[in-house]
Predict the structure.
Amino acid sequence: MHIEDQTLLEIDDLTVAFGDGAGSVRAVENVSLSVAAGEIYALVGESGCGKSTLAYSMLQIVPQPGRVIGGDIRFRGRGMVAMPKRDLNALRGAELAMVFQGAMNAFNPVVTIGAQVDHILQAHPEVFSDLKEGREHFDHLLELVQLSPKRIWKAFESQLSGGMKQRVAIAVALLLKPSVVILDEPTTALDVLNQRLVIDILKDLHRDLGVTIVFVTHDLAVVAEVATRVAVMYAGRLVETGTVEEIFKAERRHPYVEALINAIPSVLDAGLTVRPIGGAVPNLADLPAGCRFAPRCRSVEDLCRQTEPPLLGDGGGHLVACHVANREIVPMEVSKA
Amino acid sequence: MSLLDVQNVTHTYDTGNGRPVLHNVELSTQEGEIVALVGESGCGKTTLGRLIAGLHEPSGGSISFEGSDIAGLKGKRRTEWRRQVQMVHQDPYGSLNPGLTIGSTLAPGLLRHKLANRRTVQAEMITLLQQVGLDATPAFLQRYPHQLSGGQRQRASIARAISLQPKLIVADEVTSMLDVSMRVAILDLLLSFQRERGIGFVFISHDFGVVRYFAQGGRIAVMFYGHIVEEGPVEELIKTPSHPYTHMLLQAIPVPDPVLVRKRDAEGGGSERLVGEPATKGCVFSNRCPLVQDVCRKEAPPLEDIGTGHRTACFFHDEIPPLKHLAADGASPQAARS
Amino acid sequence: MVSYVLKRLAMSLLIIYIVISLSFFMIRMMPGNPMAALESQLRMQGGLSEVEIQQRINAIYSVTPDAPVWEQYLRYVWGAVRGDLGRPITNPGTTVVAVIAEALPWTIMVVAVSLIISFIIGIAVGAVMAAFQNSRFSQAMTFVVSFLSAVPSYLVAIALLYVLTSVYQVFPSGGAYGVDVTPGFNGQYLLSVLYHAILPIAASVITSFGGWALGMKGSAVSVLGAEYVRAAESRGLSDRRITQSYVGRNSMLPMVTQLALSVGFMFGGSVFIETYFQYPGIGFYMIQSVGQRDYSLMMGCFVLITVSVIITNLLVDLLYPLVDPRIANPAARARATDQAADPDQEVLPAGGSMA
Amino acid sequence: TAGTAGGGSPAGNSGGDAAGTAAAGDSSKFLTFFPCCSWGTTWSYNPYNVNQLGIQNDFISMRLAIVKSPSLTEFIPQLADKWAVENGKLNVHLRDDAKWQDGTPVTSKDLHDTAILNGLRGDGFWSDITGVDVVDEKTVAFTLKEGQPESLAKLDILNSIRPYPSSVYGKLVTDGLKQDVVKYFRTLQQSPEQAAKLPEFKRMGDAFKNLAQLKVDKLIGNGPFRLENITTKEAKLVKWTDFWDADKIKFAGIRYLNGATQTVYPQLFSGNVHLSNVYMPPPILNRWKTTPDSNTALPLGFGFTIVFNSNQKPLDSKAVRQALAYVIPRQQISEAAYGTDEAAGGTWKEVNTGISPTLEQIYLKPEQLEKLNKYPVDPAKATALLQGEGFTKKGDQWIKPDGKPFTLTFTANAETTDIVTSFNSAAKALTAFGIKSEVNATSGAQQDADQHNGDFQAGMAFVGGSNPIAMYNSLLGPGYNFTRLGNYAGKRGIGFGPKKNVPGLGEVDLASTIDRQARTVEPGDEMNKQVWNWAQLVNEEVPYIWYATKVYQFPFSTKEFTNWPPLGDNKSSELWDIISADMNGGLSLAMQQGYITPK
Amino acid sequence: MRFLSDLWRILRHDKGALIGGAIVLLYCLAAIFGPIFVEVGNEQDASQAYLAPSWEHPLGTDSLGQGVLSQIIVGTRPIMIVGVLSAVITVFIGVAIGLLTGYVGGAADTVIMRITDIFLTIPGLPLIIVLASVINTTNPVVLALILSITAWAGLARAIRSQAMSLRSREFVEAAKLQGVSLSNMIGRQLLPNVGPYVAIHFLLAITGAIYASVGLFLLGIAPISGNNWGIMINLAMAQGALYTTDSAFYLFSPMAAIVILQVAFVFFSRALDSVFNPRLRVQ
Ligand SMILES: Nc1ncnc2c1ncn2[C@@H]1O[C@H](COP(=O)(O)OP(=O)(O)OP(=O)(O)O)[C@@H](O)[C@H]1O
Ligand SMILES: Nc1ncnc2c1ncn2[C@@H]1O[C@H](COP(=O)(O)OP(=O)(O)OP(=O)(O)O)[C@@H](O)[C@H]1O
Ligand SMILES: [Mg+2]
Ligand SMILES: [Mg+2]
């Protein structure tokens, strides 16, 4: 992990909106975070709180009618929002790669996986000048994800099972040796064994290839298993970020994160302490005043219903956006380093 | 007399590739008992659940409810059985008819089984909705599924299942499509019916955490490609699995505690053979079993009792190593905090 | 695969058999019998006395009418099997098959050319509409194209006739080629053929490309929204590659499937168009023979139209794997389309569902 | 009886001056002629085929002679230049210079074989003769049946036989066949029932079948034009330079157009079509009138009639039919279809006799015509008649004695749009009177079948020709009325009869009487007498109503062709009268006489 | 009610559909009330033929001197009756067969599907022409039956495949577990889910039937009796309207009547599509 602490990807006060005018919703609002080289960065949150949107914006592929309306994303210091398409295309796949949520629909159904791999190789001749070399690399990656190259090359997407597709998608993402791989819910919808397999693969890849991983999930157990750093989102906003230990073990934390952790029945014990979080994620088009989590929060106070809490740290990288949790600490705005 | 008796059931789908999805499955439950079915994706859990609920007829074997084979039920008795076995599906989006209001989803069953008449049906439905913790107003009955959240929908479909006062509910991955925040509430709701009304459950899940939470005091049956490979009381099976497959499943569960994870990872332990096809000869698991021996490849081990209602289909169940990280005390994140 | 082809073949033969039988019974169900029809035909021709008319009819129909129906039926079916659909009532000097053999190529030419042209134009327009989905241009095009596809082809034919053969006498008002050219492979003849085919082709293109355009637009829009297109983008593929191999190919597939189905519709529509442009194709003969009660020719045309459609469908089915490589086995496609018909994906042919 | 040389001088005289002026014209021009609907989608060069090519006519193949119109006794020679009746035989002599277009001479064998073959299909002249024989190279003798009126036989033979080359069809003529034909027709003249059972008849049928199915690849005519090429839309006729009068024909050929009626209009307006004979609805006619170089010739009396089904209640009642005659505004319904334009012939002529106005003038005296009921539009009379029959009027609707409303359906051939228009008009008038009426326009075949079967209330019929008795026969005779032969044998058709009290004849079997008269009554006093008898019957009983005359015109353009046959005061002339009765024959005649020359 | 409010919501935003819907409504009103208010008179006057538009005859007059507009209005009813009747037959047969075979399955399904195969393959329009010429009727019910002869098959196919996928949908299974009757299953559970498709198909079936029936009258295959647009065009064509400028209104008015109706139907069906489209409904 020689490149540790070098910031690769920096999200700066990003706001992404879907639609415009009255019906528009801000799926991501004023989010700032930075991913350092060598990290495994987890984005966590309930369904619909903007995780995928944030992930898409990292590659500038937010689906219509979504668009970035504020802030920027910087990769190795280069702003991507205003980047020309040509430069973006050079980055995509080669430097930043993405595995889509579900991975079920990530492949062209009428072209073999092999041909799609070739397309990628041809689009980035700077990575592998020789097609054969690239193909061999892919074979190697397939072995890493425990798949047999022979079968995959000629297969159509429809001939693969869900777990296999997920792994092929991971291999494809790694094809051009990108420095960052973004995975959107790579373990969701997989059963325990496939999930474990993917977790192990991610860890192995991280260890062996030194690739930086950003992954989106709503499963805290997976976070605990894989991540080094975590950002928790709620209704389009960041509510807490920190190292995985800080998230799981620190005293000061966001009631939402706490509630999330408490809501999981664990196999580790009979789990009589689990408690559901009441209510549901608010509709982004109809947000409550003040803290967005206030309606569901156990430790809610009047202040929470009036002002949105800022994201504050106590000096380290552990930032929390909660009036109650932050009461004790010296307010210190997060540095934009 | 047990409530449900699955005897030697084999099933092959007409539309499938001809391979049986279930092989000689034996399972029985008592009234008010919870039996959990676990296993990897595609192992036949849902299929077994659907057979139990009578949505398909098994291609072989028989399923008896309260002592009588459901295939032979006729007339009134069939209606009665139909009422007593219900199912709650996995997908809260798919299990409610998008074109019908909640009211018209709930009413036909009540009317059909004469649990209400035209006059009382509305009041009856409101009571039901109250029982599942929904906003029980007449206006709510007029809502369409798309106007409800996932959790509300799942509650509505639970309301539909309990509306017929069943004795057995097949709950197929009822929480897997729900947000984490809502899962426990739904499980608690179902549990309350088990406790208060003595409704028995066939609870399908691949999440041991959920199973352990829900099926306390009940039993777990572990399935592998259509075979029940191990069956036993919840705590015992989780703490001391007697089949390498169960062991593998438990071992694979991600642990929501980074400290524990580090500790476990440091101890090593590979993830080989997590996935793969079943063996066609001998023990079905022999292809992927870390403990496999020659005999396993030749001969299929029978599902044998190894003490107090705990059965396993492994020749070498004694040799299964203990699950270290699960056994560790105070390992839960909740515990870690305190 | 082989068994699938055999099955399809058997089905096709069954349908042809049914159509032939239908045709046999229809001919006998027609008001009056063929002899009466001939009698009327002769009387309308004029200049013949009643006795003359009876003489001719007796002479021409001296053989079968008294045979039992089943015998006639067997004879008819057996004849049809050997490619003999009898003789036109109005023209016993030739055979139905010979008449059709002369007419069919014209129809096939017009149908094929207009299908291809309208397909190409429609796909192009649809693709452009999808590419500029929310633009004014696309909205205007959607309107124009929906409008055109809703207009019955025969009305367009009448309008074209009005403008181009009456107000401005630019095109001939009928026929397949001029009388001044000698049929054969010579430039003059080919030009004449082209000149005569332009209006019928134009009429069917004008009314049918809109359907393709709308279908293509729908298909392309849904493909554009598909995850794998964004996935391809995320991999840094060039726009050209994405357009060609990802969007183009996938949105074309349902169109190609539709192409086969529309053949039947085009043959149907050609009946109107050929009649209005007096284009001597099979549809023209069919309507003419309806008017003249030439039942055997009419049903012969019907049988042949059906057979053409069946053969096209069969060919498309067998060739489909070339287009969609996932389908090595057409049976799989049949099953897939059987089970997962997505109504949103359906392209409705112009004029609704009468295909 | 002495032989009469035919209509005297062909060519020469009448066409003389015309030929002179034509010299300046461009003789490479083609005349475009659009007579409409001459051949169907399929055609055959074989004249014995049902669907013979409609242009196998006097442009390409000549008849023996053409009858002058409306005369029944004067002929203009064509292929035959001399004929005479001697010893009960009609000897026909063919022109010496007549040749087939393949270069061989037209001989008596061609005519003889054609006569035999025509017998197979029952051509009418066989009811006049008992045999046909070759006399010499150019002469054929037709043996007349005993008691056969000469003039009618001449009409049947000269005006209708168009010889075909024996080289093509003659191989089907054998001695046996000839004997069969002769025997069959001898028997037929005595007893039709017996004739139909003869083995000869069966053999003739077989022979005809072969003949009809004979595939003929090439048209060999003997007329002034050769068929060069043909499509469904057009035939190209090229002047045949070996024709005997070829030098009188001043243009290179004829573009003979075929196809839907309406397509001719724009071509007429633009002058692309030089001559046509199609029905022109009033607005078209108006436009034609204002077109430069436009001319119109008007034909003789042809007409359309509304036929009632006298076999169906309540139309079986004479009073009801008369009532309808008082209500149907004949002039109005005629003008709806043909307009009012005087230039177009003042289309409507009142007819109360059931035959054309021209024939009325020839065969009936003015005082006779005066005596007939004119059926002016007169609702009061109609009301009285209906009330007399027990009809009542309830509100706007007449109610039949049986309590049901009196409604009327007109059956028409949808292709004859002028009739549909007229009938629509009639239906509206009837509806206004209180008899709810509508028009059912079906295919021609359906309409024909319905009228033969008697499945109609009011139908349509086209009436024409120059023989008044034949005209009556075509409606009241067994063809349409109590049919005896063929498919409709035993059907009642228009159901007028079967027996009626005919003025001057007494109670007779109507259909057979008029049919017999059509074959036996010669022009002259006898014919005048009979016509008067029938006229009174039709006028009184109203089995049909004549409502339209001059239903089509001959528009022709002088833009490119001049020297058309002259038009008289009433836009007609002897030649135009022939043309209107026999279009192709008349035109061919005009061309042979040097008319129609390019400008 | 919800349907209507949805419809209105969509129509408000889609001008084309709104206008389409309004026109369809107008035609329906014309079909229902037209013949009551407008009359094609029985008097006729050849001197009034082919008049240019005027206040009295906004679309001019025909060959009989009668108003073209009033004929068009009166001619709306027979066309709409045949169109709607045929669509009802098509949809009824298609939906009934599709749902039953799709849901129940089994041998009956196989047999019926082979039959639909046959009807799907036989080209519809030629068959209609053949039948219409044999049967030669003016009876609207028979005509509608002829027009639906093959149209139902495509619908049955589509409905069946939807029923088949619905059959294994969880809410259908849940209803089955509730013990609902077959009629409830088909009518309440399945039908509403294919409703959108059926509704849109219904409109398209109307346009298809109108297309074909006008064609039949136009070609003179169906008997020309009474007053409808196809007959009007037929008569106009036959009277050479194509070739005189005076009669342009006479010829083109009925054509416009058909085109406007057809286009209106298509645009209106687009709105229906949006109303029913579950994707748009979810949010
Ligand atoms: N194409 C779109 N049009 C409009 N709104 C959208 C669109 N895509 C997403 N959104 C909105 O953006 C919000 C965030 O969506 P996003 O997919 O990023 O959530 P997520 O956290 O990834 O959820 P999940 O766990 O379900 O994947 C959602 O509330 C959704 O309503
Ligand atoms: N209707 C069907 N037709 C054919 N095959 C089926 C059908 N339903 C399920 N199968 C097959 O049967 C096997 C077992 O399926 P089942 O749904 O019972 O598994 P499961 O254990 O519930 O899996 P999951 O955890 O993914 O829900 C799978 O291989 C599946 O592909
Ligand atoms: Mg997401
Ligand atoms: Mg399952």
Notes: Residues 330-355 of chain C have pLDDT under 50 and may be disordered. The radius of gyration of chain C is 24 Å. The pocket of magnesium ion (ligand 4) is lined by residues B 45-46, 172 (CB under 6 Å). Chains C and B do not touch (no CB pair under 8 Å).
